Amino acid sequence: MNKAVESNNLFVFQRSKALQQYCGDVYFTHEDESGFLYVLSDGLGSGQEANRAAIATIDAIKEDLQADLTYMLEKANQAVSGLRGAAIAIIKADYLSKTIYYTGMGNIRFYMIGLEDKLVFPLSGSGFLSGRKQKYRMQSFKYKPGSKFLLHSDGLVLSRVRKNLESPLCVVKLGHLIEQTILDIPTDDVTFLLGQLPN
Ligand SMILES: [Mn+2]
């Protein structure tokens, strides 16, 4: 599987391990006038079982888009009991307060430009969602209006993240450049979401 989704403020790219039919990374995007919610879930392993676990987390989160992020994470955690586990990150933007809320478990990475041009890259809880009860932490950061951010699974290995985020290119052009760093036949599922926040 290989696909790219392009819009003014978001570029999403996904390519599955060995170009398998099922991708173990599953993402969800929701946006309205007040902000957005983006979720990226990486089911353990690859192929259909990984895909199934990741979809279960996303489905659980979609049930209530107004829920607290830590509650979303707990619902996603319960959804994978009996399935493969998953790494996951949830980011929510509030355009009014120019704030990003972040929570996650495991190896999904998130980078954004914060106040005073600081590169912000919150660390997720260690481990992964497995169905067993865990504690989750939500963090919040003020973002720099008009700046770019990147959410990606561990299949993407990108150096010079700050340089990329500070590029004057639009998200579609920059997204295609980042895409060029990904192997034609990847050895892990790869997903990235490159977005731009409103001014
Ligand atoms: Mn992975």
From TrEMBL:
Residue ranges of domain PPM-type phosphatase in the record: 7-197
Gene3D superfamilies: PPM-type phosphatase domain (3.60.40.10)
Species of provenance: Listeria seeligeri
Record SMART domains: PP2C_SIG
Matching Pfam families: SpoIIE
This protein's name: Serine phosphatase
